[in-house]
Amino acid sequence: xxSAESKTLTIREVRADESERWDEFVAAAPNGxxxxxxxxxxxxxxxxxxxxRLALEDDGRFRAGAQVLLRSQFGVTLAYVPRGxxxxxxxxxxxxxxxxxxxxxxxxxxxxxxxxxPNEPAGSPVADLLRQEGFxxxxxxxxxxxxxxxxxxxxxxxxxxxxxxxxxxxxRRAERRGVQVRLGDREGDFERFFELMAxxxxxxxxxxxxxxxxxxxxxxxxxxNQAELMIAELEGKIIAASMVFAYGREGVxxxxxxxxxxxxxxxxxxxxxxxxxxxxxxxCERYDLWGVPQHAVEESADDAAADxxxxxGEGGLWGVYRFKRQFGDMPVRYVGAFDYPYIRPLYLLxxxxxxxxxx
Length: 359
Prior knowledge:
- The chain is an alpha+beta fold.
- The chain folds into two domains: 9-143 and 334-354, Gcn5-related N-acetyltransferase (GNAT) (Aminopeptidase, 3-Layer(aba) Sandwich); 146-333, 3-Layer(aba) Sandwich (Aminopeptidase), CATH 3.40.630.
- It is 36% helix and 27% strand.
- Strands 1, 2, 3, 4, 5, 6, 7 and 15 form an eight-stranded mixed β-sheet that branches.
- Helix 2 packs antiparallel against helix 8 and helix 6 (165-176) packs across helix 9.
- The longest helix is centred in the N-terminal third of the chain and has 17 residues, at 92-108.
């Protein structure tokens, strides 16, 4: 644990020329996450957010850090830490010192409140620590409240053998029916990817961003060798696509879509498998299927019971969960979002007006 008397302890803003050092720290931390990566901050800067990276440094080593996104809107500022703060191991003192630095930054920018959404599972002691520090649990979460992971350790043969029998069979069916997966590097790939995203969003009832948004995130991560567009084709026609990321030990299937007219060719099975193979080639140890209904990981119901008892508001995402279950066998429910209000009347008003929108 850090000593309060340590003369080497400093809290400072990370410089632009330290981007690689920042990513090495975040990627190695047990609770590091791609949304705390340098590229994610640069990407969000294209959409009105100012990323600021604060690091607690001890004897030349980052011990804790947070990428906070700041945005001025309607004369006030919002401060948000997606899937953070990040800390090397269990170090509550370092965590508190970092929170204090975040408060100073947020207050200096006249923020209404500070929102943090830690990359921690439900039941983590971080929740109690945040409450002790004056944070309140928020009903407004920005990131998925639950997800499923696939264990990628052991190499492709071992991972394939661990998949469910039905999943393995459907991957082989896709291959026999002529579905091929390639990297998206041709003219029109992004436009078709976006068309599929829009159609899948309508079908599964999840929000879809603009074509420019997806291009922007790819332009930030792909040059760093951290993202690829996976294209599933049948006789030259694109029938499924996904954007997959590799960051540290974790692969992430953040965006994916398919043509419902070709479900009998099982393109989603083979595109996920090829994405997993790519993530394994990058050294990833697990694969995040990126978001399922939180009720799904709280109960162990079979598919039929889950479909009958689908909670209101989950919509088509329940069907997405049933598909993702074919790959993910490691469910995680996150600790959730916590807010620290600075201007309470405005915070209460903002919470009421924006509870279903991104802060």
